[in-house]
Each structure stands twice: as C-alpha cells, then as structure tokens.
Amino acid sequence: MLKITDLQKTFNPGTVNAKTALSGFDLTLENGDFVTVIGGNGAGKSTMLNAVAGVWRPDYGTIEIDGVDVTNMPEHKRAAFLGRVFQDPMKGTAPDMEIAENLSIAARRGTKRRLKWGCTRREREAYKELLAQLDLGLETRLSTKVGLLSGGQRQAVTLLMATLQKPKLLLLDEHTAALDPKTAAKVLEITDKLVSENHLTTLMVTHNMHDAIAYGNRLIMMHEGRIVVDISGDAKKKLTIEELLDLFQAGSGSEFTGDKQILSKKR
C-alpha cells in the first residue's frame, strides 16, 4: 500500500544551516499494516510523514501509494489517497462549523460539489450512530461548533473525519501528544478501533515508547533520517522498553537521548 524508496531530503542545502533529515530512507507497508514510528528529536519522523503527505518534495527517491507514483503529485491531489490527524487538536477541522457540518465536508471529500443541502436528515442520523461509537456523548451534540469541544473530543471527531472515506493510508502525527494521559488513552483506544474495523493501512508517529509497543503490528525506530529498528509480529508483542532501547543502541551505535520519549517510558 505504501512503498518509499531511497528517500533523501536536506534542508537549507549549501549553507551553514544545512540539515539532512532523510538519508536513503526505505519503507514498505502492506495493506492493513498499522506501523508505529518512534525516534528522538531530529530523527526524521515528521519529515518522512510530510514527504508522504506531499508537504514538500524529496530531493531524491520515490513514494508510491497503492501502486501509484505520487512523488511529484501536488499535496491537494495526493490528499485523495490520504487521511491525516495532526498533533494540534485545532487542526483538521473547521472550528466555527457544527460537528455535523464538519463530518459532511469529510464525507464529500474528493467529490464534485453541487448546490444542495450540505447535510441531509439521513446523514445526520448516520453521523449520530458513528459518534455514539466513540462513547463521548457527541451523538447528542451534532449542532455544537467543533471549536467548543475539548481537545480529546476534537481529536476524536478529526479521526472520524479522516477515516470516513476509508483512505488508502492514514497518517497520525503525534495526534495524542497535546492531550492529558487519560484523554490520550481514550483517543488511542478510538484510533485502534477505527483502524481495525476499517482495515486501514496506518503510519502513527508517537513520542511515547509504551504506545509504540502497545499499538499496531509493526514498530520502526528512526535515527538520523533512517530506520535502525524494524520489528513486527510476536517479537513486537513481547518487546519491553528496555529491549527496544538495546535494539536502538545496536542499530544506531549510540544511546537513545530523546527527552520526551525517556520521560514517557512509563504511563
């Protein structure tokens, strides 16, 4: 479903501020893979995710989604393949519009717009059923403006919007980092449910080692723009944080120094 080959990206090339963010990065995801991505500051996690999303083009290499080469495809066209949830709960929704209106926009993504009601009665009933599954009481608040919701509620709505059209690839960019631990756990529970039920191929960047191990069927750890740990299946299920750190040291030749990740080793 996703194939990244020899991806390279350097910011501010030819200057004293030159920074190589991706260095020959390779990654292949099969249909239905749920891959968690972790690494220290500057490891290249967000650069990789933004390259897939089309925020910027790589200096070298290719990106294919479901067999289509999207390397040079503009971001707005590439969006037809993707669903994305950002770290900031304020992104990904229209805060001055109702929950139902936001969901209607997501439901019409990639279709031609016509002059007709933006949200039908039938659609509102369908949205109520979807929201009820979140167990957040939002099914009775369809007319509430999204900007009035809490961070966790808003991320849950954003997740619904991102998965409503069942994208070929779901990108989660530290989407629980700005939430308190209890709310983050609830949003992750919802994430796991939506990914599993819709069989979505997913890349989840996280700063939390516990979450990286607990969720998904595969874990990759990045360092200096490349993958140094790639573990899946039963080996991932049995993995401990201490073992993950040992694998990182063996693969990178250095100790892990990510402050946020070290602080979040325990829930």
Distance between the termini: 32 Å
Mean pLDDT: 90
Number of domains: 1
In CATH terms, what is the architecture? Answer: 3-Layer(aba) Sandwich
Please work out how many helical segments DSSP would assign.
10
Shape: globular
Extended strand count = 10
Largest sheet: 6 strands, mixed
Uncertain spans:
none
What string gives the helices and strands in order?
EEEHEEHEHHHEHEHEEHHH
Q: Measured on Cα atoms, how large is the radius of gyration?
A: 19 Å
Oligomer: single chain
Strand order of the largest sheet: 6-7-8-3-9-10
Helix coverage percent of residues? 25-40%
Question: What is the CATH H-level superfamily?
Answer: P-loop containing nucleotide triphosphate hydrolases
The fold-level CATH name is Rossmann fold
Beta strand %: 15-25%
Helix/strand-derived class?
Answer: alpha/beta
